Structures are given as structure tokens and as C-alpha cells.
Amino acid sequence: MRKVLAPVLLALGVFGLAFAGLMRFWAYPNGEKTPLDLNIPIIATGPAQLYNSGTGQLESVQLRADRNVSVDSQASDSKNVVVSETLCIVIQRDNPPPCVSATDPRLLPNTPSSDRVAADRKTAEAVNDPKYGGNVDGNTSIKHVGLTYKWPFHAKKKTYQFFNPDVGLASPATYEGKEKINGLTLYKYVCVTPKVEAPVFQDIPGYYTDTRTVWIDPVTGTIVKGNEHQVRQFRGGALDGQTAADLNLTFDNATIKYQTKKAKDGRDQIELASFWLPLAGLLVGVLALTGGVLLLLAGRRQPPPSEVPPPPEPEQQPDPPAYAAPPATAGVAPPPQPPGAQDNEATQPLPR
Questions:
Q1: Alpha carbons 14 and 20: distance in angstroms, whole number
Q2: 29-61 residue pLDDT tens
Q3: Can you name the residues that pair with 243 across neighbouring β-strands?
Q4: How many CB atoms lie within 10 A of CB 344?
Q5: C-alpha Rg value of the chain to the nearest Å
Q6: Given CA atoms 217, 220, 221, 224 in this order, what sign does their dihedral have?
Q7: How many angstroms separate the CA atoms of 253 and 224, rounded?
Q8: Is residue 190 within 8 Å of residue 210, measured between CB atoms?
Q9: Is 352 strand, coil or helix?
């Protein structure tokens, strides 16, 4: 039994140590990639002021922005992920659906919009390769730069380039500190798009400025919460410099909870692959190797049956001395002995 069990334990120990190393130094680093099954609805709401051409005044309204971010798994590969985004912003009047027709006055100008970008699955940096079909509203001449819909795994406390599809430019997103949301400690980044020329409403020339604030889970790179303050102004003519739209949108609570769960699930998977599975393999390997070695050593210390000396024979004790009866006189028969007397006589001492 010992001859069979010792090699089995040794083999199990080697397997456990190999498994621990494989999980920690190969499977975990190579498996830490943006998944290819994402389909994330993001809803942001908030107040806005829109220019009313009829009154010449700004009108206060409530907006809802419905954004859907999904992965094109067919176009993605082991290194890069292709992400498609659609956005529709609707004035919240008369209980509208998430998106309305282009002729509906409740639809915010310049929406619906679309964006398609390829990004490295580990660094989240944009990849401009024509085979992925990147574009902004169908315009393939716009090249994505930096990050778009996700931060890299294990985000750093540094400045990243953050792409804005509204103007087709990337601006610095600076690290501004930590903040706790729903039990997660997140990194806060603020990205300011400086004043640039951009259409106000379709072909109407204007100026554009934007400040985006994102709260990032530093482990998975998930954008848990986002806020955008965007201002569009008319450019040229009598309305030069007049605000056309001033909106301030923030992820709603349902979206923040959804993104929080995504981040926590991702953290659990990373912790399982980087810590718990390697630890389990290490413990099994060490214990199994220890047990196998001890069994082998115990087997070597005990000699085989052919070499075991035979046990000593038991020592024989000498019989006690017996004393004989005195010889009888010749011709005279000894007197008859009572029953048992012969035995007693045999054991009596001789008279002195």
C-alpha cells in the first residue's frame, strides 16, 4: 500500500505546484481581457437649457440619454475588441419612449448618434485598423485615440487620453482622487474638452465645450459612474456666442448599480484566478509532496521481511529435583501405602 500511495502523492504534489504556477503566471495574465459578450445599457438623466428660437430665450427641460454599448464578437479577436455605441437624447415631455423619430421635436439635435471603435482588450487603447470598421456616425476618416468606453485593467493614478466622439478628438483625463460608491473605492478622472468649433444643430456653425467626469473601478477598468456637462454656442451672425444648449447628465441609480455589479463580478474573477486558485494548488502540492516524501522515508527505514532476524527461542527452565524413596530390605515387601501416600513420600525430604 505504501509503495503505491507514495508515488501517487508525489505526482499529485507536482501537479498542484504546476497548477499554481500556471494559474498565477499564465492563465491569470492572459485571461485578463475585455470580455466579448458585453451588451450594456447606460441611462443618464439631468437638467438642460435649450435655446427656443420662438422666444429667443433659454428653456429649462429634463433630458434622458439612452446609450447602448455592445461588443461585436464576430469582428473582435483574441487581442482586440470591437465596440459599437448608439446614443439617443430625448426631452422628457409627455412620457416619451427611450428614443423617438427624427421628426419628433423632443429629440435633441445631433442625435441619434453612433460610434464604432476597436480597442486593445488589455490596455483599452484604441486600435485604428481598417479591418475593424471604426467610424463616428459613419465617418471613417475620424481616427479614435486613447480610451473610449473603458479604462485599462489596474488603472493608474495618472492622466489618460479620453476620446470624445462628438468632436472626434481626445483630451487629457486627469486623476482627481478616490471616492467610494456602493462599497467600491473608485478613481475619479476629469476630462475637459476645450472650446472647439463644432456644429450646434446639424449644419448650424457653433462652439463646443465639454467636461466629462468618470468614476473608474481601478481593478477592472469599468466606468461605474459618469457625468457630462456640455455647452454648445452659436458661432457667427447675430447669435454669435449665444448658448444653444447647456446640459448636465449623470448616470441614473439603476445604471450605477448595474455597473457596480459588473465591476464586483470582474474583481471576483480576477481574485479567483490570481490568488485563490494558485493558493489552493500550492497547498495541495506542498501537502501531497510532504506526505509522499514521508512515506518514502518510512519505507526505507523498515528492512524487508527477508532481513528481519528470527525471534529468540524461549529459554527452557530446568525440572525441580525429585527425591527417591529409600530402598526396601531384601526379601521384605514394603508395607502397603495408603492412596496418595506415594506421591507425598516422593516429595518428603530424606531423614537425616
A1: 10
A2: 666 888 888 899 999 999 999 999 889 999 999
A3: 233
A4: 10
A5: 45
A6: negative
A7: 11
A8: no
A9: coil
